[in-house]
Amino acid sequence: MAGVSLKCGDCGTLLKSVEEAQEHAELTKHANFVESTEAVLNLVCSSCGKPCRSKTESDLHTKRTGHTEFVDKTSEAAKPISLEAPKPEKDLEMEEAGGGSSSQEEEMIVPEVNQQLLSELEEMGFPKERATRALHFSGNVSLEAAANWIVEHENDPDIDQMPLVPASSKKPEAAKSSLTPEEIKQKQQELRERARKKKEEEEKRMEREREKERIRVGRELLEAKRIEEENERKRLLALRKAEKEEEQRAREKIRQKLEEDKAERRRKLGLPPEDPAVAKPSAPPVEEKKSFLPVRPATKAEQMRECLRAIKQNHKDDDAKVKTAFNTLLTFAKNVATNPNEEKYRKIRVTNPNFQDRVGKLKGSIEFLQLCGFEKIEGGEFLYLPREKVDIAVLHSAGSELNSAINNPFFGVL
Question: pTM value?
Answer without folding.
Answer: 0.31
